[in-house]
Amino acid sequence: MSASDLTSFIFLKDTPKEIEQKINKYAFSGGCDTKEEHKKHGGNTDVDISYQYLTFFMEDDECLAEIEKNYKSRKLLTGQLKKSLLVCFKSLLGIIRQGVLR
């Protein structure tokens, strides 16, 4: 997810496990350093890379608004937000790969 680190790019040929590892390792979080701090202050969607990707790739605006509300209000943790992105990416890549294989 950084231009300076070629191992951080997500490629169409990446396995779901590789995508998960890259997102968990490289996607900058808008959450706090600890779970306790996050539960006090909530997350910052303005700087959270996983959330920013969701604004482009998630088609369900109501679901995105719910994720934003829950992240800011401390109900959703960073790991849970990244899982939402993973579900979105896996679905999107599945559609792309089906089209390529035809």
UniProtKB/TrEMBL annotation:
GO terms for biological process: tryptophanyl-tRNA aminoacylation. GO terms for molecular function: ATP binding; tryptophan-tRNA ligase activity. InterPro entries: aa-tRNA-synth_Ic (IPR002305). One of its GO terms (cellular component) is cytoplasm. It comes from the Eukaryota. Keywords: Aminoacyl-tRNA synthetase, ATP-binding, Ligase, Nucleotide-binding, Protein biosynthesis. SUPFAM superfamilies: Nucleotidylyl transferase (SSF52374). It holds the Pfam family tRNA-synt_1b. The keyword Lyase does not apply. Its EC number is 6.1.1.2. It catalyses: tRNA(Trp) + L-tryptophan + ATP = L-tryptophyl-tRNA(Trp) + AMP + diphosphate + H(+). Belongs to the class-I aminoacyl-tRNA synthetase family. This is tryptophan--tRNA ligase. It comes from Amphimedon queenslandica.
